[in-house]
């Protein structure tokens, strides 16, 4: 049965800049909504259940159902679209079909809208390959540059880009693609949330006297790397959607600093209250969090009750597999930001501060305990 598609939109006349944020409840989408509201945009949020956030119009639709999208968007006229959603599938062929199809069907359903710009979030799998062949085979030399040719391996990011390019040519809007590294930002129930995952791992370490063992490779521990603050990603997306220098371009987006995990891991552990004696670096093969901690997940409800935490379902907090994949790469991962710097985007974040500010927010919301 086709799900009902409804809209609950502001009654005021639209402003000259109306943003439709797809995936508004995720890490990137939440930060985007914050940024757009701060800049006085009219903001509409599209999701299956609709948005309940104050000051944000709601569009309820199923991204995988073209008819649901056509019905929900029939009277919606955004000037800008920010596409931050994806759905993980079992194989890359399914990822391509589903995630490429969502971009295609959403933009087709907005054929009537006065679109000026569409911004799409992808990531460094553009350079490293999809989950099925992640960081395997021949990959570009670091730092990664936007002009690198696509890998020969099929990749749902490429499918999303191709659907974006085709719709832009057909409908006459400009576009931008934003290739982030691992994103540090606020969300609950997100499948790719390293910040909250590490905080939960540290809590289990503290409460169960477990080692806080780095789950990844020696290469990741010792080599330079970088990350992306969700707020910075949002700033770049809004900049590219409104500045001519951002039109019809793909941009890398990372914080601007580099670090080694052998430096940052013990610092994050200390901030999360982990006994220094339990902080362990790599020793031979990676020790994935999924292997370390899955057997201890059953302790979380009691921990939540002990500290008065609001979420007892650890699966909504920790995404072991994603953190394991990022930290298990057997190579250096550094991203070049020259292209957007030269175009005029000069935003910067310090990665350690991005993490500690996020931990403070999760503590304030009673999602993790305060040591």
UniProtKB/TrEMBL annotation:
Q: InterPro entries this protein is in? A: NAD(P)-bd_dom_sf (IPR036291), PRISE-like_Rossmann-fold (IPR055222)
Q: Which domain of life is it from?
A: Bacteria
Ranges for domain PRISE-like Rossmann-fold come to 77-369
What CDD domains has UniProt attached to this entry?
Answer: 5beta-POR_like_SDR_a
Please give the SUPFAM superfamilies that the UniProt record associates with this protein: NAD(P)-binding Rossmann-fold domains (SSF51735)
Q: By its UniProt entry, which PANTHER family does this protein fall under?
A: 3-OXO-DELTA(4,5)-STEROID 5-BETA-REDUCTASE (PTHR32487:SF0)
This protein is called Nucleoside-diphosphate-sugar epimerase
UniProt lineage:
Bacteria, Bacillati, Actinomycetota, Actinomycetes, Propionibacteriales
